[in-house]
Amino acid sequence: MMTELLEIDSVEVRFGGLRALAGVSMSVAEGTTVGVIGPNGAGKTTLFNAITGIVGVDGGSVRFAGDDVTGLEPYRRAQLGMARSFQNLGLMLTESVETNIMASLHLSADYGVLDPLLRPRATRRIEQHCMGRAVDVMVRFELMAYRHTAVADLSFGVARMVELAGLFAREARILLLDEPTTGLDTSELATLLEVLSTARNDGHTSVVIAHDVGFIIELCDVVYVLAEGRVIYSGGPQEVRSDQRVVDSYLGRAS
Ligand SMILES: Nc1ncnc2c1ncn2[C@@H]1O[C@H](COP(=O)(O)OP(=O)(O)O)[C@@H](O)[C@H]1O
Ligand SMILES: [Mg+2]
Fold first, then answer.
1. 240 CB under 6 A from ligand 1?
2. Segment 117-169, tens digit of pLDDT
């Protein structure tokens, strides 16, 4: 039996008079990959912001791994195992690939700023453990050749892989990816599809926002379509293209 890892119930987010989310419900079963598509301004990024706590909700609830996290700070949700990527890369451009992945890992590492002084040996052990994990993901994402290269000197596609590698290194319980396909060329898209499909087959749980409907259909177990802050479709990836509401409000317009 599948268990729901993430459950969003009737979530509302208002910005002044605008209802960016007008009662959105969604559930994500452990081990599945869920796609979110919809026109610009539909509320997709706001949904991720509400899930991760970057914006507060004006109604509804967010449950994660069995707990109500609706009022929790973003860093607490990160500690519980949420990892998200940003539409514009969430990286330090002047820092190396290795430094960026280590920085991502530290978001979930279990020690404080004073620990290097107070507990030097334990801190060194954690550092070594983090470096081991950083090297693992650099190998897996074929980034070892760029290990000491600044992110600013990489192609956008490789930089996107660095961001993803940092998220995977955290061994989070859920990955929330906001338009990871944007700016990638055909071969980078194929690599991304392979990386995310492998993650799915390995039992990872992900929610992926993308404009590339074909990519979402190929990758995902379940697809949600958002329009004007509401879910207008949720269901299997194969049926989405023929759903009349989706065609009318999104696909018909996009193509
Ligand atoms: N911080 C904010 N302040 C005011 N309005 C916002 C804010 N974030 C998003 N919005 C608005 O909310 C709506 C949904 O935006 P967004 O979630 O970014 O859509 P999407 O990611 O689907 O393109 C848009 O009309 C956008 O302008
Ligand atoms: Mg967006």
1. no
2. 677 787 788 888 889 999 999 998 889 999 999 999 999 999 999 999 999 89
Where is 44: in which H helix or E strand?
helix 44-52
The answer to whether residues 174 and 82 touch, using CB atoms and an 8 Å cutoff, is: yes
Q: Report CA dihedral (208, 89, 123, 172) to the nearest 10 degrees.
A: 0
In a domain, 15, yes or no: yes
Residue whose Cα lies nearest atom 27 of ligand 1: it is: 41
Range of the domain at 239: 1-81+173-255
Q: Give yes or no for residue 45 CB within 6 A of ligand 1.
A: yes
Whether this model's pTM surpasses 0.70:
yes
Distance CA 6, CA 52 (A): 11
Does 148 lie in the same domain as 115?
A: yes
